[in-house]
Design brief:
about 400 residues, alpha/beta, Rossmann fold, Rna Polymerase Sigma Factor, Chain: A, 2 domains, seven-stranded parallel beta sheet, four-stranded mixed beta sheet, about 50% helix, globular, binds NADPH dihydro-nicotinamide-adenine-dinucleotide phosphate, binds 1-deoxy-D-xylulose-5-phosphate, binds manganese (II) ion, magnesium, 1-deoxy-D-xylulose 5-phosphate reductoisomerase, metal-binding
Length: about 400
């Protein structure tokens, strides 16, 4: 029986992970759950899976959470609140594995905590890899943690590279597929509303990542994520637009052979891969029928209309704090866009200006990463206020 700490339980990935775990009650127990601020959703999950601990990041919600658990007859479940409580779940000695599905840089501290505790870390929270970079990979190695990617492209690459040794990897090329988002093919991005941007053509996801997919920032973050996870330099990671999202990514080897992982676009598959690896379990995902699909299509990304893909490559090459600043500016800009305080193309301007205007050496600890993140958010808020 594997005891899982499920962080971000109330989100899109969290719900899919609960669905996979529910198919295998003999194999997985949800030992603890954590969320951001939504009490009722956390308690509803607690009612279903009866974890030992429930944590909510928003400290002001502690009393509400405690009371709601009591009202539901779940007094034996321990309630916790605050960022430190969420982090504690990630390092809890009673948890064998951590499924980290928090959105944004709020996931940095829990990811580092799980890494330092030597956990099996099933990682959906790409922002913590983007911010953590080399330091995170070093921490994982030093503490004997095991990182299993959940992001669909990285799960695909992980599976394609499973049989490859270091020499084979050195001569390989990663090809990340991208749906192209809801505005693929458009050259004019004016007048785009949050409702239009969160409507992803293929995947059902949280609001922040859906906007990232629409700007192609998601693919930029994924280039950086792939570079750190698999040790590939930026120039050996390509992006290929594949609107059907059936091929989740590919690896091309020295001999010209290209390995790909395919499936129905449903996160339950990469989640099941991470949960069971190196075994395979049922995920509940609908089977792929290529005959029904008939054809798969491909095109090059339009980096002129969607400039953040280029900015992400630049950030990765620059190193230092560039990726942390880009991520922080993007989170702030996307939040402002979702609140209708910034236009869609305003996201491009804000993220580009902030990233290019902030240089410093790479941080040496998770705390330093969070300090850079906070400073970048402060500068971004100031910049956006001046722009209005
Ligand atoms: N959705 C997808 O298909 C994919 C997602 N990912 C990545 O997975 C991560 C989660 O995405 P997704 O599930 O779509 O996002 P959602 O917005 O659906 O869910 C986010 C989760 O994080 C919680 N949360 C928010 N802030 C905090 C905080 N400060 N501390 C603890 N928990 C917090 C939310 O709680 P609350 O509900 O209370 O707000 C919620 O449980 C992201 O990094 C995303 O990039 C990667 C690939 C695919
Ligand atoms: C499901 C998943 O992994 C997302 O990151 C997805 O890739 C988003 O789609 P885009 O390819 O449009 O960014
Ligand atoms: Mn992805």
């Amino acid at each position: 029986m594997q005891n899982i700490a499920l962080l971000g339980a109330t989100g899109s990935i969290g719900r899919s992970a609960l669905a996979v775990a529910a198919l295998h009650p003999d194999r997985y127990r949800i030992h603890s759950i954590a969320g951001g601020s939504r009490v009722a959703e956390l308690v509803e999950i607690a009612r279903n899976v009866h974890p030992k601990h429930v944590a909510i990041a928003d400290e002001s919600k502690y009393e509400d959470l405690r009371q709601a658990l009591a009202d539901a007859g779940l007094k034996d479940i321990e309630a916790h609140a605050g960022a430190a409580a969420v982090r504690s779940l990630a390092e809890d000695p009673e948890a064998d594995a951590v499924l980290q599905a928090i959105v944004g840089a709020a996931g940095v501290a829990p990811t580092f905590a799980a890494a330092r505790a030597g956990k099996r870390l099933m990682l959906a929270n790409k922002e913590s890899v983007v911010c953590g970079g080399a330091l995170l990979m070093k921490t994982i190695a030093e503490h004997g943690a095991e990182l299993l990617p959940v992001d669909s492209e990285h799960s695909a690459v992980f599976q394609c590279l499973a049989a490859a040794d270091e020499k084979m990897k050195k001569a390989a090329r990663i090809i990340l597929t991208a749906s192209g988002g809801p505005f693929r093919g458009r050259r004019d991005l004016s007048g785009i509303t949050p409702e239009m941007a969160v409507k992803h053509p293929r995947w059902s996801m949280g609001r922040k990542i859906s906007v990232d997919s629409a700007t192609l920032m998601n693919k930029g973050l994924e280039i950086i994520e792939a570079s750190w996870l698999f040790g590939f330099p930026e120039y050996r990671i390509d992006v290929l637009v594949h609107p059907e999202s059936i091929i989740h990514s590919m690896v091309e080897f020295a001999d010209g052979a290209v390995m790909a992982e395919l499936g129905t676009p449903d996160m339950k598959t990469p989640i099941a891969v991470a949960m069971s690896w190196p075994e395979r379990i049922a995920s509940g995902t609908e089977r792929l029928s290529l005959a029904k699909l008939g054809k798969l299509t491909f095109e090059a990304p339009d980096t002129e209309t969607f400039p953040l893909l280029v900015l992400a490559r630049e950030s990765l090459r620059r190193g230092g704090v560039a990726s942390i600043v880009m991520n922080a500016a993007n989170e702030a800009a996307v939040a402002a866009f979702l609140e209708r305080k910034l236009s869609f193309t305003g996201i491009f301007d804000v993220v580009t200006s902030m990233t290019r205007g902030f240089e410093a050496p790479a941080p040496a600890s998770a705390e330093e990463i969070l300090a850079v993140d906070a400073e970048a958010r402060r500068r971004t808020a100031e910049f956006m206020a001046k722009r209005r």
